[in-house]
Predict the 3D structure of the following.
Amino acid sequence: MRDVSMGQYYPAKSGVHKMDARAKIIFVIAYIVMLFFIPTVDGYLRGGGRLGGYIVSAAAAFGIIILFLITAIAFSRVPVLKVLKSIKAVLALVLITAVIMIVFYGGEANHVYWSYGIINITLEGIISGSTMAIRLFLLVMGPSLLTLTTTPVELTDGLERLLFPLSLIKIPVHEIAIIMSIALRLIPTLIEEADKIKNAQKARCADFDSGNVFKRAKAMIPVLVPLLVSSFRRADDLAYAMDSRCYRGAKGRTRMKVMKLGWRDLVGLVLICITFFGVLMFVYDYFGVAGIVTNWAYSVIA
């Protein structure tokens, strides 16, 4: 967990680092939307499609997204291994999810390898579990690149500016942005603190690696309790520090750096639009749902 990069900032001189935080947040949202535009294999087969067509189309759509992610990483000058380390936090969850989807696949299946009760090992289930694993991996790597190239202060200002319309209906946008930024910033700090507590318990002959799952979970109690106490103490220190600097929320607050959209943001916007429409082209043309857009266009014109 010490190598998890989520919430950490990697300083570098690149165009991605100099981009406006608002633009980068919008890009990440569009990136996530692209991932979920790709349908599941079960939904595609129920719509009358063939498995071979789904494999080709999903591979092309994921390929476009991966190419976009690789391009963003290359321009950011962040080491690839630094971005890949963000997967470590969700690796076990992704593997468990993929195995469950493969073993207990209950959708349309024409290629059954082995079946017993509710357990069905099928080609469709394997493809479904694999695509879900790829989707989750990409879902983690995109936001991780955002935090690696954006400081917590820039991220807070960007979120506050994007959520500004909500302040018109008395929603505390500034406070929400501050809470999100602080929580994100404390992720690596708490991971490091947990590692120190665990090593201290091991020095006192604590055993975290032997026994069944319940015994290991019980052995983590001496780590979780000090970590919880330390988190509350750190929160109190932060509150006192903010109060001593006369922090009173958004009222009357000014900024040392004013956000401005530059040419890098426009280039990035063009790149994300090309990628987004490229994914839509594969989704709507090759997944057999182009008729939805056509019918909608005809209804609007009529």
